[in-house]
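Dear support,

I submitted the protein below through the web form. The confirmation email said the job was done, but the results page showed an empty box. After a refresh the structure appeared. I'm attaching both so you can tell me whether what I see now is the final result or a partial one.
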Amino acid sequence: MSTLVYVILTSLIASTLSSGTNGETLEFLIGSRGRDLKNGCRSENHRKYRATRCSKLGDAGAPPAALPVKTKLLVFADQRLASVYPIIQKFKSLITSDPLGITKTWVGSDICNYKGFFCDNPPDNNSATAVASIDFNGFQLAAPTLDGFLDQLPDVALFHANSNNFAGTISSNIARLPYLYELDISNNLFSGSFPTAVLGMNGLTFLDIRFNFFAGAVPPQIFTQNLEVLFINNNNFMTTLPDNLGSTHILYLTLANNKFIGPIPTGIFKAFSSLSEVLLSNDQLTGCLPYEVGLLKEAIVFDASNNKLTGPLPVALSCLEKVELLNFTGNQLFGMVPEVVCELETLRNFSLSDNYFTTLGPMCRDLFYKGVLDITNNCIPGLPFQRSVVECLDFIAHPKSCPRMWSYTFIPCNSPFSSGSMNPGMAPSS
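What the results page shows now:
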């Protein structure tokens, strides 16, 4: 040992002893003789020291604390995951509310274990791994937009995000997503016009945009697109129901709680013939009920309440052999309640309140006393809770007429007509 080194160690030992450093520390300082501190901190004899001092001393080979330290590079299972990582992280930075702590899991390179993200092999490469599905249902996340996120996930096939607080409009770039076939953004805060980008998505089979703030017209093309499910209820759409509604083959369709105007198309039986629930309530539909509603043989629920429909009830409703709920509350219907409708064996709830019916036969009265028929606030003499005489007379003084008046006594399911011997659009011979 040189004289210089000896002098330095002697001074160091003296300084250490005077400051009260313990023997273990002293042994480490002498034993290391200035060698790599990293090895000393890993020594089994200095665990206690490492816990209290090594973090302060730092590694000999590490850069000074004041200099930037390189972070560990993320390693992804597939390049497709690496490409969407910055997209997800950017979207994460836009999240303004996350009460369930969902985004706390959106850390690191294992994107397939992020909560709400699901991976699979993309259709174009069975050996690759990609984000194939997003399920944010009920996460209560809030963000001002989905732009730059949904439309930038090239391999996504299902995107479900109902019951959140996402806002903004839907980017037209979603039309570029080649595999997307289910899109559910219901029960959010989206606004603007109908997302017309979906019109060019031939692979889309499921579209649910209900309970948002979309407004304006609904493009007629959507009813003839290759969709199985279309839920657009509870928005602010204001348009007529298109004539091509009868050309649709959508299996599940809801239009209620918008501002649809105009009459119910006579082609309704083509549009809704396979539906168990036909929901046209809380719109602004006008005109008379077409007898074709009686051709909805699968209907269990038919609800056209709270519109501006007028005219008599068509007796064709008696053809709805599976119907359990008929609701025409809050319209301007009048005349006699058809007895043959009240004879339906499956009927459990028949609501005609807030109309202007004037006559009720014995079968219908029987339903009224059983609590099946709600006929309150009409113009039927002798029944409780009816409109005032003044209201009823005022309505009668302004008579309403309907086209095809013959059709209100026409029963299309009767054997002579159900066999196809007669064109449904023509009046039966008298």
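Response: this is the final, complete result; the empty box was a page-load delay. The first strand starts at residue 117 and ends at 120.
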